[in-house]
Design goal:
The chain starts with a helix and ends with a helix. With 588 residues, the protein is of the alpha+beta class. Helix 5 runs parallel beside helix 18. The chain contains 18 helices and 27 strands. Bound molecules: (2E)-2-methylbut-2-enedioic acid. The site of (2E)-2-methylbut-2-enedioic acid (MEZ) has 10 residues, from loops.
Length: 588
């Protein structure tokens, strides 16, 4: 529907019930004399423009809603209509935002609430009380207090909470999703660290300096050098800390852009994210840290120039958690295609490897503090994601010896180049996707592959010719490509594409393949921090008591994050945030 039609739209109940059922409603408007009948105007903030509505109410319910101003992306129009439909159908002032159009949803809700605030009979406007939907009973919501509140129960949030607690602070974690883990639980390939006890035991030569150089080079030298320096120095301690908590990080492999094997993961090359999530959560529980799930932060409370807590929204209503320090650990915004495309239009409609909660809430809940956001236009795609299914095949498969071929069965890139280089090379091929090809030797070297096999994602054949037939590529060429590649492995020299890491040749059947292409993976930009994880405002001042760690921050990764550096970043800067927030909360 085009914008001019939207202006004229009076909502009728015609939209897809399936879409509406994904929207949870909150805070019913209960009484039959709630409103002064009439038509009221309201305004809210969409992604980059204001949204205007006219809401017509009878004494007891919302009768219609008309958009009077709507300049959001065309693809959000139907989604905004669905939201309006839900509001009218359920006669509510609040509803969950619709995935894919978060900012437009919020702006629409804000506009409707603005209009309704003018329509309420005196004293009827909902307050911050809990309403039991079943029996209409009203109770005051708790107003709770703690030393440190952590927003987000992913790897950064749980790391910071544990360290804050160990430094003597009382800590509460608030998580909007029904489960902990965020993107961390999907991480697979490894956690980068140099000069670790594990590398030493395995005889791997690496150095903090080399790790620093690789990370800066990978990020186009646009990283904040101080943040990278500290990361490179501290991550070996993080590895010991995680091992001390119970994590198995004893397998070390190679990921793109690294000059040494430094990606730490569990024995046999199992996925690392589940391991770290489980270990952190077990420790959080043992430490008695309260984790409040399905509770969304909608604002950071502040008094003059220092933060004093957070305001949260739950299905029962809104309330405040008072705290002396706040740590933002809400992750990136890779799952918010509307926002991604606003920074990189070429990524409109792209799939993502991210969990559905990674939508950039921080932009909204931190806006009153004028938080400084940097590098927002640096967004990364992961080159080996199964199209449509959006399932990431870990970079470690290439690190352990797989190659990429196009529809002519030819290699076209150094498979272990940075994600940007490999993604761009894929997009230049016919069909804009490629095939990952490997053998039984690679499969046996990396147990993460079993999951892809068991899910039925892999083509399999005892011969290269049989595999080529299933892939629909010329068999003779695939054979020639693999033979040539194996000769490069033997000579440790790839004169065609300059690959420098050759884990093993592709020579033992069965042979495997899966079609892959780029999908949005990591958002390098975010909240501006310093090495102490203090958050800055747009005036360049530290916001007292506010800390941030993990993908929500900008500056660590420049314009491109190296594989394996996310887990290092979130756990290392998570620990630093926890320590500093605890100290701050005690010193006031
Ligand atoms: O750090 C990552 O994003 C990573 C290693 C992903 C992967 O391919 O496993």
């Amino acid at each position: 529907m085009k914008k001019n039609l939207v202006f004229a739209l009076v909502m009728v109940i015609t939209l897809l019930l399936s879409a509406c059922s994904a929207t949870e409603v909150e805070k019913p408007i209960v009484n039959d004399d709630t409103f002064v009948a009439g038509t009221y105007t309201g305004e809210g903030n969409g992604l980059s423009n204001s949204i205007g509505v006219e809401v017509t109410v009878s004494t007891e319910k919302i009768e219609s809603i008309v958009f009077t101003e709507f300049n959001e992306s065309d693809f959000t129009v139907d989604l905004a209509d669905q939201l309006i439909e839900t509001i009218i159908e359920n006669n509510v002032a609040q509803a969950d935002t619709i995935a894919g159009a978060t900012f437009t949803s919020r702006g629409t809700l804000e506009a409707v609430r603005d209009a309704l605030s003018k329509a309420y009979v005196d004293g009827k406007e909902p307050d911050y009380t809990k309403i039991d939907v079943d029996n209409g009973e009203k109770t005051d919501l708790k107003n709770i207090s703690t030393d440190v509140v952590v927003i987000g129960a992913g790897g950064a949030g749980m790391s910071s909470a544990l360290v804050a607690k160990n430094n003597g602070a009382e800590v509460i974690i608030v998580e909007k999703m029904p489960i902990v883990g965020g993107n961390t639980k999907f991480a697979t390939g490894g956690l980068n660290a140099a000069e670790t006890s594990i590398q030493k035991a395995l005889g791997i030569e690496d150095s903090v300096e080399l790790y620093y150089e690789d990370t800066m080079k990978g990020g186009g030298n646009l990283n904040n050098p101080s943040l990278v320096e500290l990361l490179a120095q501290k991550t070996k301690e993080t590895v010991d800390w995680l091992i001390g908590l119970g994590a198995d990080l004893s397998d070390v492999g190679r990921l793109g852009g690294a000059s040494a094997n430094r990606a730490h993961r569990p024995t046999g090359g199992a996925a690392v994210g589940g391991e770290i999530t489980d270990v952190l959560y077990e420790n959080v529980q043992e430490a008695g840290i309260e984790v409040i799930l399905e509770t969304k932060v909608i604002g950071i409370l502040s008094n003059n120039d220092e933060v004093t807590g957070v305001r949260v929204s739950t299905k029962d209503g809104e309330y405040d958690i008072n705290a002396k320090a706040v740590i933002i650990a809400t992750g990136g915004f890779g799952a918010n295609n509307e926002l991604v495309a606003s920074f990189v239009p070429a990524f409109e409609g792209y799939g993502t490897t991210n969990h559905q909660g990674a939508i950039g809430d921080v932009i909204d809940f931190a806006k009153d503090l004028n938080v400084s956001f940097i590098d927002m236009e640096f967004i990364q795609t992961h080159p080996t994601v199964i199209p449509v299914k959006n399932y990431m095949i870990t970079e470690a498969v290439r690190g352990n010896g797989a190659i990429l071929v196009n529809r002519s069965a030819e290699r076209f890139v150094d498979e272990l180049q940075t994600r940007k280089v490999v993604s761009d090379a894929e997009l230049a091929q016919e069909g804009q996707t490629a095939f990952l090809v490997f053998d039984q030797g690679v499969r046996e070297s990396l147990s993460a592959i079993e999951k892809y096999y068991n899910k039925g994602f892999l083509l399999e054949s005892d011969t290269i010719e049989g595999l080529a037939e299933q892939m629909g590529v010329p068999a003779e060429q695939l054979k020639a490509t693999i033979d040539t590649y194996n000769s490069y492995v033997a000579n440790e020299n790839d004169p065609e594409f300059g690959r420098t890491n050759f884990a093993r040749p592709i020579e033992n059947g069965p042979y495997y393949s899966v079609e892959v292409g780029p999908a949005v993976h990591h958002t390098m930009g975010g909240v501006e921090i310093d090495v102490e994880t203090q958050v800055y405002n747009e005036a360049g001042e530290v916001i007292k008591g506010l800390y941030a760690a993990g993908e929500v921050t900008g500056g660590v990764h420049g314009n491109n994050r190296l594989g394996g550096n996310s887990l290092s970043d979130i756990t290392t800067y998570g620990r630093i945030a926890g320590e500093n927030a605890a100290y701050y909360s005690k010193s006031e």
